[in-house]
Write a structure and sequence with these properties.
With about 280 residues, this protein is α/β, with parallel strands linked by helices. It contains eight helices and 14 strands. The protein folds into two domains: about 150 residues, P-loop containing nucleotide triphosphate hydrolases (Rossmann fold); about 70 residues, no CATH class.
Length: about 280
C-alpha cells in the first residue's frame, strides 16, 4: 500500500494487530473503505468486531500495523479532534438526563450525552437538527423527551445525532439491537435512504445477524477469532461458505429481493470439532 494517504479512501487498516495484555484479539486484519462505500462487519460474538470498530472510530491505537482514518494515521494525530468527523451510532448510548429529541441530536455537536447550561446552539445548528429530524420522520416529536421514545425512535434519533456534524464516515454498532421486526425494517429503510441524502459518506455497520443488513450494503468483511475470513463486494463475500466458516456452524445464506437471510443447513445432522476445526456430518 502507498505510504501517502489516498483521498479516495475514507478508512484504511493494513495488517493490523491488537493485543490486550497477553491476548491477541485482532491478528493481521486489513480493510480499505472508499468514499460512498457501505461495509458490513460480520462475525460471531467474541470474533473481535467491537475491537475493530474501536480502531475504525479512532478510539484505540493498534498494537502493530497501520490505521488511517480520513487520511490521518493513528499515532500521528490527536484522536479527539479526529473523532469529530466520525459519526457513531450506538443503541446503548446513555442519556443521563431527560433531554428532548432535538436536544439529543444537538449533543452530537458537543460529543457528549448531555447539554451544558452554558452551551447554546446557533440558529443554524438548531435548523440543522430539525432538518435531520425531518429526514428521520421525527420532526413531529422534536419536543418529546427521550424516556418516552420507542426503541425504534431512539435508533433514528441517534442516526440524526451522528449526522449533525456532517461526518465523512458513519459507524453503526449493531443498530438494530432490541428492535422488533417492524422497527428494524423502519430503521434499515432509514439507513438505505442515507445513500441518497449523503452520497459521499462511507459507513461500516457491525452485526452478527444477516437479516439486519441494509439493502444498500456494498461490501463486507467477515471475521472469526480476530482474523479475516473474507473481504470484498457483498454479493460474493456474504456466502454460505464464508458465514459457515465464521460462525463454525453449517449456515445456508439466502439473498432475495436485495436482502440477506441465514438459516441452519439441515443437510447436516451434526457438527463435530476436531483440532479446533469444524467437521460437518451429512444427514
Amino acid at each position: 500500500m502507498n505510504n501517502q494517504p489516498n483521498s479516495e479512501r475514507v478508512l484504511e487498516l493494513e495488517d493490523v494487530t491488537f493485543r490486550r495484555e497477553s491476548q491477541e484479539i485482532i491478528s493481521g486484519v486489513s480493510l480499505s473503505v472508499g468514499v460512498g462505500e457501505h461495509w458490513a462487519l460480520l462475525g460471531a460474538n467474541g470474533a473481535g468486531k467491537s475491537t475493530l470498530m474501536g480502531l475504525c472510530g479512532a478510539v484505540n491505537h493498534p498494537s502493530s500495523g497501520t490505521v488511517r482514518v480520513l487520511g490521518e494515521r493513528l499515532g500521528r494525530v490527536e484522536l479527539q479532534a479526529l473523532r469529530r468527523f466520525i459519526g457513531h451510532v450506538n443503541p446503548r448510548h446513555n442519556i443521563l438526563s431527560p433531554l428532548t429529541i432535538r436536544q439529543v441530536v444537538l449533543t452530537g455537536l458537543t460529543g457528549s450525552n448531555h447539554l451544558s447550561a452554558r452551551w447554546k446552539p446557533t440558529p443554524e445548528e438548531s435548523n440543522s437538527a430539525d432538518a435531520l429530524l425531518d429526514e428521520m420522520g421525527l420532526i413531529h416529536k422534536a419536543a418529546a423527551c427521550w424516556p418516552t421514545l420507542s426503541q425504534g425512535e431512539r435508533g433514528r434519533t441517534l442516526i440524526a445525532r451522528a449526522l449533525i456534524t456532517a461526518p465523512k464516515l458513519l459507524l453503526l454498532d449493531e443498530p438494530c439491537t432490541g428492535l422488533d421486526i417492524a422497527a428494524r425494517e423502519q430503521l434499515l429503510e432509514t439507513i438505505d435512504i442515507l445513500t441518497r441524502t449523503h452520497p459521499n459518506m462511507a459507513s461500516v455497520l457491525v452485526t452478527h445477524h444477516l437479516e439486519e443488513l441494509p439493502a444498500t450494503t456494498s461490501h463486507a468483511l467477515v471475521i472469526a477469532d480476530g482474523q479475516t475470513v473474507a473481504a470484498g463486494p457483498a454479493a460474493k463475500t456474504i456466502s454460505s461458505e464464508n458465514i459457515t466458516a465464521a460462525f463454525k456452524h453449517p449456515i445456508e445464506v439466502e439473498y432475495r429481493h436485495g436482502r440477506w437471510a441465514a438459516r441452519v443447513d439441515r443437510s447436516f445432522r451434526s457438527v463435530l470439532y476436531k483440532d479446533s476445526e469444524m467437521v460437518a456430518v451429512p444427514a
